[in-house]
Amino acid sequence: MSRLYAKARTMEEVVTHFGVDVAQSAAVPPETVEGTQGLIVIEKDGLRLLRSIPWGFPRQTREMRKDGEPPGRIGLVADLTNPLWDRIVVDPRYRCLILLAHFANPDGPKGEKTRAWFSMNRQPLMAWAGFCKNTPDFGPVFAGMTMTANEQIRPFNDRMPVLLKPEEYDRWLHGSIQDVIAIQFRDPPPSEDFEILFTRDRWQSGTPPGKALPRRSNDAMF
Questions:
Q1: CATH number where 98 lies
Q2: Does 20 fall in a domain?
Q3: Which of 85, 101, 158, 202 has fewest C-beta within 10 Å?
Q4: From CA 137, how far away is CA 141, in angstroms rounded?
């Protein structure tokens, strides 16, 4: 999965859809890339809380430490046995719901890649299965779990976000590690559940889906 997603709904819609009890005062960002703010829902003391925190856990390799480089960021959780995640994924207190309406993958040849946006039919808001933690390097951060992509997404990327149905929110926030494993390794959502918006917006353009310039069928992008 690429490291770009967006939310195109109002704060009121977010609060209603996710049953938020306490909403942090924050604007809905037009898009999120690693290191920038994203909206998540956590549960604490029986209340669902909305938080705006950066995407990406700190990651520092042995070579980075040797060279005195600061930690980088990693925002995608693919291998649950990786030492970076193995203690976090087993504990429900580190679970969160990542709010999004669209996620993107680069489309086209190298040096000319554009934004292709993916969303679910008749589902204006989605919950991405996530993890969050207060870290010494970056403070509160979150990351999203990925899974094998369906056939519609696979030509762009072999991974996609693990998307939860509303009836699965409680299971994700409170379930066991067996639930986490089962959710990650289940079949991906059917391809026909997704829409693709092909755009002429360059990958680094910063243009969100709501302001995207759709690509016409006769546009020469390849």
A1: 3.90.1680.10
A2: yes
A3: 158
A4: 10
Report the alpha-carbon distance of residue 222 to residue 220 in Å, rounded: 6
- Is residue 208 included in any domain, yes or no? no
Q: Which two tokens stand for residue 104?
A: 């993107």
Pairing mode of beta strands 102-107, 4-6: antiparallel
pTM for this model (two decimals): 0.92
Q: Are 147 and 184 in contact (CB under 8 A)?
A: yes
Instruction: Please report whether residue 111 resides in a domain.
Output: no
pLDDT in tens, the chain (222 residues): 678 888 767 888 888 999 999 887 777 788 999 999 999 999 999 999 999 999 999 987 778 778 778 889 999 999 999 999 999 999 999 999 999 999 999 999 999 999 999 999 988 899 999 999 999 999 999 999 999 999 999 999 999 999 999 999 999 999 999 999 999 999 999 999 999 999 999 999 999 898 999 986 545 443
| Count of domains for the chain | 1
Q: What is the DSSP letter of 84?
A: T
Range of 18's domain? 4-106+124-194
Query: 170: which DSSP letter?
Result: H
